[in-house]
Amino acid sequence: MPARSVPHRCRQTLSNLALLTVLGLTAGVGIGAPFLAHAQQSATERELAAHSLHGNRQGAMQLAVETARARHPKNPELAAKLETLPWSVAEAVELAQWWTTEGKFGAARAVLAPHVGTKTADPRAALALVEVERLSADAPTRLKLLMKLGQFLPKHLPLRLQLGQALYETGKAIEARKLLDPLADLYQEGSVTATPDLVAVARSLALNGYFKDALAVLAKAEDGAEEPADQLAIQLELGQLYLQKYNYRDADSAMRKVLQINPHHPLARTAMARIDVASDGDLAKARERLDAVLRDHPAWLPARALRAEIALHDEDVEQAKAQLGIGTAQRADFPDLVYVQGAIAKIAEDPALWTQAVQAATRLNPNDGNLYLQTAVYLEMAHRYREVRELLQEALKRDGDLWQAHAALGVAWARVADDAKAKKALELAFGGDPYDVRTANQLTILYDDVLKSMHLLSGPNVDLRVHKKERKVLERSALPFLQSSVDQLTTAYGFAPKKPLLVEIFPQVQQFAVRTVGLPQMGAHAVCFGHLITSRSPVAEPFNWKLVLFHELSHVYHIQASDGRVPRWLTEGLAMMETAWANPRWRQANDRRAWDRLQSGSLAKLAKFNLAFSQARSMQDILDAYDQSMREVQFLAERFGRDKVRKLALAHGGGKTTQVLIAEVLGQPAELLDAQFATWLGQQLAHYAKDFRTDVSQLWAQQRLKDEPETAAEGSDKRPVSATTQALHAALRALQAGSGAAAGVLLAKIAKEPPGEVDWRPHASYLLMDLAVRAGHKQEALAHAKTLVDMPNGRGDGLVQRSLLFFGAQGAGNAAEAVKHLRAAQAIAPLDRTTLELARASAQAAAAAVLRPSGQPAAVKAAAWLSALAPAGEAQLRDFTKLLADSDPYDEATPRLFGQLAWAAVAPNVQRSPKDAVAHVHAVAHLRHAAELVEERAPADFMAALLEARANWASGNSKSALPVYRLAAERAGTATERAQAWCEAAKAASDGGDPAERAEADRQCAANQGQAGAQTGDEPAISP
Prior knowledge:
The chain has a five-stranded mixed sheet with strand order 1-2-3-5-4. It is built from 52 helices and five strands. It is mainly alpha-helical. Strand 1 and strand 2 form a beta hairpin.
């Protein structure tokens, strides 16, 4: 089926002659010239307008003060009262606009009063007063003002638009539509040419549902816009329209153009913060933007409402309520605030506050479902999916044409694996609003395309939906794994998850992302919604799919039992530990960074742990939050038992806060547990005290150096600072300024000085080593590394130093020296990533002695590595490589190497009795384990099947080996690989297989060897 097209929706003009007669505008009546041309601006007016256009508040206010003093030189007291002075209408409007967003509403009204309120009201002043009332007065007051101004200024299109918006806001949709529809007639007649009027026409079309027509009007306006003010107005409107349709790319582009003209524009900055949240998931950036907006424009209520929403992301209900309180004190029925109030009430489990929100929304517009829609959006972020469906259904009871609610309900049904209801709701949404990007994506990419090519594989515990081209692989591997995993977790948690329970694995990342968030990009490997788990496929882009799916299945129990209320740190930490408890090789950790966070005092506290996720400033911060979450759960499980930690997660279903539940379930306050955790972590990672390294920023902070290069706080005790310490401070300032050469001279001198009260020599040598590495001076870096590791009592030893020396020795061909540095690194931190890197390099170098034919130069060179790394021989090397392969769940290369080593030991004995039966059995176990390791990282990999077939054959079961060899041949990417699989299959078939199968294997072996152009039996790692 072709992709869904977006139809052009014809405009249908409605008429209400009574209303139009009152307002003096009917189709065919042109726009009055007086509203488009004003008297020549004075120099002050032009300068004020320029300041406003570019967001220069300070310049505008300074000009206003200077102008007032110049006009009233003999009366400074009068000149100081800017709002009471006689200003021209242009001057008054500019001042009122500044005062409005600052919350000085009285001053704004006062300065506008002389220009509004009579039948000769100036339209510019009228619009400014409407904005004052939008941010400060209740809806009825604003509507009353607009009706009055509409009588005074019946032909002013922007003012008419404001009235239409107010009518929509208060539930008078029919009147609003009839009022705004004639604007399109004027446009079609060619009567509308000024940019403000074109923008008004475009927005009226969008309000009435004609999005494509609105874009066409703005495109025409954009073609003729030459003045920056016109360009700003057009881009601002475009950005808002795109944002409403979840078209974040084009919204971002438009708002950036606005900010190029006015970097301080509150609406554009707030829109960019919305994009930060909704598209980028960057709460920290959005928070910074909004805090800056509210510093400049404290009365800008859209920013206040979004800031409260971000506090909800942070699970900081008190901060959300504080933001809400500030906003509602200014205008209690501002729609965005009413919607946030509903979300706060639901998340805080506050029925009274929810009732207040419902009453406020009903007073504003009894037919508006947006309170329920927006609250559902917030609750979806909190993973409370059951309540989301209930709220959306209530929204549609109030407004059946709320297309966003239909779309959201479609997504909600999909997340409980009810695609029939999901598709119906999405099609309703698309029929009413075909410009919503998310809805169009889901219908076009999912329901009209990929889902039609996916098969549902039923299981006793969980169903699996996969693409037909990946069915054979995933049915064999993923389906049984999912069933056993649910059995395991059900035993651990004491209850079985409610059905339906569905895992969907998509062959393309775009399809996975659209199914998950409605947009074509996202970074996660998989996501859990309680009843549905969506995942990328590990077939095309391998990853440790078993680890990922077990992690997401753990979330099913947390979400279902707590109704989504479990905090993120606890559910993520518990899911990570569940995978580690299920299989120790799935543990993920970065011990060194955890040690650094402990030493710097930057560990998250339990009471505010979720801030570590929501206020993360980088992906590394997110990874650190995951890491600490896992360690917190490990600590709590060791302290109180796994069942208690699971109970803590599930207890959130009652609605109590995490702090209360920690005290109730674990019997200790969170603050005490924070201190105990830090002590426990210090004991776990104490070996890192032997890993010496110097970080410039940390040393800068420890020495309490200021950012200004010329000053320094030289210690709290005010004692004189030694010359060596002063030299170190100077070197640090040079490094901070980017002057490595100057720093190097100072550090070299410090490295040679005798130790004083503080011995700075290790720090100086480390920084010199770092400078040499950055400059590419290899030998110099090695010399400094050696100086450090040779310091007495190991005080300069560390993983970075050992890594440099290891690779230096490897490059020099000194295997024994390299392995010595590996052993030293293992003594410091055996599972550190740096140490594992050295171990992998050593294993690869030594393996050539086993895998290459003897006598080859590569094998001869590798013999020294084998002797140094595994003096007991090949079996010891296999054991070493197995431990290494088990240490990193995302390492793809080492399991393959391990499998090759195991096969090298097994292959000579598969067709004869082994000399050492025990050793043979041990090697076969290694072979099977290697097959499992490769398969869990890449289920469709040729090597996974080949190793499994070899293990079956080596175990004496050639019959079971043959179909797996066939599978390996099917997965082979080259003729050489196919020949390898078929030729081994032929030999396995000779050990008692079916003659017909042996004949086929022989034929395939010969055919593929011919294609490959070479025999495949030369290396013992390939064939016996």
